[in-house]
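tool=predict chain=A
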Amino acid sequence: MRALNPGRVFIRVIALLSIAVAAASAAEKTLIDYFLLMPIQGKLTREPWGAANVLPRDPENGLEAPTMKQWCYWDGQIIDGPDGKYHIFASRWDQGRGHIGWFGSVAVHAVSDNAMGPIGIQD
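tool=predict ok
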């Protein structure tokens, strides 16, 4: 029978306690705890589209049509390009068609000097 090494036992107990404490701390967080506020790039305004509970907001910190009179946007991922700019390949549809227009979405390419926007569509 092999003798227990008290130093190794102590280290293992401390390691297990550390894991248990870390797991308990992580369990206390909810999904919303992992979201970060988007920095303001332009200015807060009540003029863009949106429900009262999302206004005021900054329409320049992302990909959107500030007045929402022509296009609805969805999808997209920011890519840090080799040209030092940020590129988004996303989709949009004619806002005049309502949400059923989503079925007629087309791809768009947008570029920005800042990952947070403003982002300009390359028509």
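The CA atoms of residues 45 and 56 lie 5 Å apart. The two ends are 77 Å apart (CA to CA).
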